[in-house]
Amino acid sequence: MSNSRRVFLHKSAFAAAGLTLKPWSIVGRGTQETSAAASLGLLFDKSEIPRMLKTVKHPRFAPYWKSIVDADLAADTKFLREELRLNNHVADFLKARVILERTSFVYVLSQDPKQLEVARLAINRILEYPKWDYFLEGGKLTFGLQRAPEATIAMAFALEWLDAAMTDREKAEIKKQIAEKGAPACYRTLWGMKHPDRVRGWGFDPDDDYKFRFDLSRWPFILNSTNLKVIPIAGLGIAGCLLHGEHPQAERWTELALQSAKAFAPMFGSDGSYEEGVSYWGYTALHLALFLEVLYRKRGIDERSLINFPGTARYGLQMSMPTIEKPADCVNFGDASVVGDTSVAAWVARTKRDGIAQYVATEIGDVRNNYGIIWFDDTVAPTTPGPNLYDVRFANDWVVSRTGWDAQSSVVALRSGFPANHEHADRNSVVFKAYGERLLHDPFKAAYSYTQQHWILRLTAAHTAVLIDGKGHQYHDGHEGTNASWAEAKIIDYTKDGKRMIVTSDATDAYKLVQPSVELVQRTLVFVKPDILVFFDRIKLNSPLKVQVRFQIYNEDNKGKGETNDSGFTIQRPNGSLQALVRGTKKVSFRSGQHNVPADIGVYPYAEVESEQDLTHEIMTVCIASGPEKGQSKVSITKKENTWTAAGKQAGKKFKVSVSVSGEKPAVEVDSPS
């Protein structure tokens, strides 16, 4: 085939895909949308502004509203005029977009000319960027993962919110650049994920100053099942709806966005759970809701039940774990750090008339953007979640058990299940919170780049989990980013009632990928509410090795302490403590340590139990949590034939937990405190 023929076919293919190759200009509106939906605003109409002005006085939303109204416009102006770098997308382009979102929204509600002035400046600076993202396909064509789609969304909304204050020429230029720098970049991303075999190679833009570089060659495959697919879905879909009837490719953009959204929907479990963790859940569900809401309002196409939205609001609720120090704390599996923004719950409450979602919107996580204000409907009464939601085994085999929703309530979570983007090497790891304190921890601040020393915080050794001869289960080396490993675990037994939760997870396959001698790695967890937690770790090998069980200590505030003794260890926090007694089939020893990370990242201590070299290891750990005013508990561990028994008294109440290992999975009996 001749080179000219190749060029012709390549250009034809991209033109057919809606990837504009030359500037587009408005030549007339063209075909008009005939449905009533076309006359609606993208997210709201002017008639709804009084409702939103009432919402900004609501205790939930007032602090956020005050923060954006009182933002330093002089500093914004200085940044936009003097400091913004046109080859920096990670920080500067992001900041310009955030400024635009904030000021344009404040302006539409307040009509403050100072906000308008900064919003228009932000628009002009964003328009100056030659490209709206820092990724290239084939070294030439921009594709967009976050910056291009987020800018497209912000510019589309600003176009509407600032409408009367802008000239026709300004509005035309915004639409032109959305059509040239925004939508095509989003389309190229989604088209590449749909046809990864046809992608000519994804990489970083050499003109951008981003300092971390990864191998992106497999990203069309990898990112197809991550939040970085939903963001371009939202950007492309909103661009398509905005320019419907004006741009010749707008219908094609909308079609691919909707097709991609439907393909992505199964990444949410049937129960609404999301495998990348709760910090990414809100961001992902929000962008999906943004697209579906705009699609419904502008095109009359109703896909607002594409996923289990009421269930996904409950996922955000059940993954929350408020502590005294961090009210928005969460079950932080993977890279999660806080529940984050829960604006999508306001949309769920509004569209589904869902009281639990309204509770999430007003009580859980944070308000970090304007969408909660836009969607909040005070005619939906919040429903306080009851004990029926205290215990959950999500569709992705994550288990969470609790005694309530406030900071003083106890929460236990076990991470089983499949690999996922943004995961850690954390199969069978456990997080435990009681008396307002994290007592068994999953460290925050793990590096996103394998080149940084604190990458080790992603590994099994930095989790409350099992090591075999000092090694954790399989995990990737980071050269392709924070994508999924091959490690799998599965729940093989799960029971719960109002007083206790029992779960057994098998992670044999995950460990066997590293240690071929592994025959069995099982963890049974028994939570006797509210403050007794029993671990039973069962390991079988075909060659004798030592086994370690690590327990991570929360120390972000430098107030976490751990000590070992002859029979176990203790963990101290300002408002609570944990006393642990440990026994094993072989002699066990105890040590404390801390992870080798830079001091500016933090000090990450842990307690470790080590079982002597053997083919079979059975280790029972009984953890008793206490508040600051409670004394020591009395606990014993005994073994008779194949049955282990932990018994004692906590806060004046007796308990007994028996674990029998005569079968393929442990059989557990619990006598609750009485």
Describe the structure.
With 674 residues, the chain is an alpha+beta fold. It has a domain at 389-628: Distorted Sandwich (Beta-galactosidase, Chain A, domain 5). Helix content is 32%, strand content 23%. The chain contains 17 helices and 22 strands. The strands form 4 sheets. Strands 9, 10, 11, 12, 13, 14, 15, 16, 17 and 18 form a 10-stranded antiparallel beta sheet that branches. Strand 7 and strand 8 (437-440) form a beta hairpin. The longest helix is centred in the first third of the chain and has 27 residues, at 168-194. It starts with a helix and ends with a strand.
Features:
single chain, alpha+beta, 5-stranded antiparallel β-sheet, 23% strand, disordered N terminus
Q: State the separation between the terminal residues, measured CA to CA.
A: 83 Å
Number of strands: 22
Number of helices: 17
The SS-based structural class is alpha+beta
From the spread of the alpha carbons, the general shape counts as: globular
* Oligomeric state of the chains in view: single chain
CATH class value of the domain at 389-628: Mainly Beta
Largest sheet data: 10 strands, antiparallel
Helix content: 25-40%
Mean residue pLDDT: 93
CATH architect. name of the domain at 389-628: Distorted Sandwich
CATH fold-type name of the domain at 389-628: Beta-galactosidase, Chain A, domain 5
Low-pLDDT regions: 1-23, 26-34
- The radius of gyration computed from the alpha-carbon positions, rounded to a whole number of angstroms, is 27 Å
Strand content: 15-25%
